[in-house]
Amino acid sequence: MEVVTTISEVRALVRQVKRSGRRVCLVPTMGALHAGHMSLVDVAREHAEFVLLYVFVNPTQFNSAADFETYPLTLEADIEACRTARVDAVFCPSATDIYPNGIETTKDRPRGCRVTAGDVSWPLEGEHRPGHFDGVTTVISLMFHITEPDCAVFGEKDFQQLKVIEQLVRDQHFAVEIIPAPLVRDDDGLALSSRNVRLSPEGRARALVLSQALSQAAERVAAGERRAGQLLEEARGVLSQPGVELEYVAIADSVTLQPLEMISGPCRMLVAANVDGVRLIDNMLLEP
Ligand code: AMP
User: Burial level of 248, CB count in 10 A (0-12/13-18/19+)?
Assistant: First the structure.
């Protein structure tokens, strides 16, 4: 497995792989790799002969300095995990290489070029994390230009992010196939996340209400409930626990992310909450 850090190295590597007729699949990550990330590698392997995983904690997508500063960094372990998972190459660039103009703003405007996310980014996370998705579309555009992959895998764990990337690729005419990968959970239902390591044992136990609220709604829909308002009220009941600070719970169209009143086909329920000061998100398919 190759480990490359510079833009010129990764460009040369990818071009050489493509000349040999192999497809390249990109797996974008911010590191602190867990089984959820590794499942993306398995999906990537099904779609390409060469899997390139990047580890880059993207500073422009954090709307809280504290969240950025405490984001777990485990590069050595990440590289080992990639070796075990038979990733073909890991790209771990520096922030100064990726953002040659820096990330500072002058009069609230970034000095470097940015890519603004489309309307799928407006509700839900967009309302609660201003600027977050513009940071995501900016870094993904940069990484697509740098690594020129044939395809890229994104987890349904960040369901709205996946939809934002699909819109980015449509609107900006990227020749990159976007492949969704299913959300991976722990045995007790908690969605795997790099931020889970910041939870205390008590916080981790409390965090289970997120997946419980979603599972209960999925069961209610399977059993015939169609009123989103009723389902959301029940979910808020499950989520209103001490130590769990709800940001939003919503039932939305799976493509536009617009809120639904009645459920007439497959759609998504999405939730965001702070537990122990750790921001957690989760989502689930609702299928009548
Ligand atoms: P992150 O490192 O958190 O930015 O995530 C990198 C990629 O891994 C994104 O496409 C995420 O959606 C995906 N991912 C993170 N956690 C999970 C999970 N539990 N199940 C599936 N995909 C995940």
Answer: middle
Evaluate: CB of 36 within 6 angstroms of ligand 1: yes
Which residues, 6+ apart, have CB-to-CB distance to 240 below 8 Å? 246
Task: For residue 260, give the amino acid letter.
Answer: L
CB 48 within 8 A of CB 55: no
Contact 178, 13 (CB under 8 A): no
Per residue in 4-29, pLDDT (tens digit) is 999 999 999 999 999 999 999 999 99
pTM: 0.97
* Active site (annotated) includes residue 37: yes
Q: Is 30 in the pocket of ligand 1 (CB under 6 A)?
A: yes
Exactly one of 34, 37, 47, 128 is catalytic; name it. Answer: 37
Cα(154) to centroid(ligand 1), Å: 7
- pLDDT digits over 115-133, tens only? 999 999 999 999 999 999 9
Of 2, 51, 7, the residue nearest 181 (C-alpha): 51
CA angle (64 as vertex; 73, 33 as ends), nearest 5: 25
Total residues belonging to the chain: 288
The whole-angstrom separation of Cα 32 and Cα 76 is 10
The mean pLDDT value for 82-105 works out to: 95
Ligand 1 within 6 A of CB of 37: yes
**Cα angle, residue 208 at apex, residues 284 and 66 outer, rounded to 5°:** 95
